[in-house]
Amino acid sequence: MSIYTDAKYMDVPYEEKLKLFKEVKDDMRYDHNLYGCYECGICVAACPSARFYDFSPRVFAQIMAREDVDTFYELLNDNVWDCSQCYSCTRCPRQNNPGGIILMMRDAAVRAGLQSAKDALRAYSRIIYKVMSTGTQVAPDMLQPDFFPDWGTDVKAVAENLDVWRRAIPPETLHTTELAWDVSEKTRLELYMIWKLTGNLELIEGIDEGIYMILEEVMEELLDDNGYDIDDFENILED
Ligand code: SF4
Ligand code: SF4
Q1: Of 7, 18, 203, 239, which is least packed with CB atoms within 10 Å of its CB?
Q2: Is residue 96 part of a domain?
Q3: Of all atoms in ligand 1, which is nearest to the CA of residue 44?
Q4: Single pTM value for the model
């Protein structure tokens, strides 16, 4: 039973919620993310999302510790996507990692193909496609020293002449579908294999089948061109 009398999703079968709850508790990262909770609220004070949303990292620690399956399911649908994954909450005196708990919950939501996860991630489909198909999503406009202070003097030189660069080499659209640099074919091959072999590509399938089909085609083509059969895992790993 939920600790909240007005808990939502009471029409969803308890077994369905329990299955997802167990998935998170059985995750090998779980024991490193939750050690108990003092209910001190330090994580809430540190959390940027708590300032802008009806959101509390403390509640995540507490409902997991109390095994409140109904509220877990509510948070899984309504709150996990409000976290910015900054890990400011790791200053917890109990050494909990509420952001880590949320990450495991997000994984479970994506694996289960929850509609709430699909809705939350729809806005990112273009970014997912770009990162996974090209290995980067950095566009020319993003080359600003303030964004990348650790990239050294080249970024400053490019940023200072960005207008000239853009006039000389206009990006394809005003939204800059161009990339700031090409990721080498070898690196993209490695990335494709990692995404395929770790099951990340299948996760995308559960969230957005259209993007999955395009990505699979892009990846298989490059792998085929390089003599790899993506379904032949053992040989690829040996290589
Ligand atoms: S900082 Fe840690 S102990 Fe305090 S409320 Fe948050 S999770 Fe619980
Ligand atoms: S990781 Fe999430 S829960 Fe933790 S402080 Fe950042 S936004 Fe808040």
Answers
A1: 239
A2: yes
A3: 6
A4: 0.77
Q: How far is the CA of 100 from the centre of ligand 2 (A)?
A: 9
pLDDT of residue 167: 65
pLDDT score recorded for residue 142:
65
Query: Cα–Cα distances in Å, from 189 out to 65, 115, 129, 139, 224?
Result: 42, 32, 16, 21, 10
Q: pLDDT at position 180, please? A: 60
Say if CB 106 and CB 80 are below 8 A apart: yes
Q: Which domain holds residue 223?
A: 123-134+182-238
Which pair of tokens denotes residue 172? 């394809």
Extract the tokens encoding 124: 């990112």
Which parts of the chain sit beneath pLDDT 50? 171-176
> Is the Cα dihedral 155, 158, 161, 164 positive or negative?
negative
Atom of ligand 2 nearest to the CA of 57: 3
85 touches ligand 2 (CB under 6 Å): yes
Judged by DSSP in three states, 140 sits in helix
Q: How far is CA 40 from CA 2, 36, 119, in A?
A: 21, 11, 33
Domain count for the chain, please give it: 2
* Residue nearest ligand 1's atom 8 by CA: 37
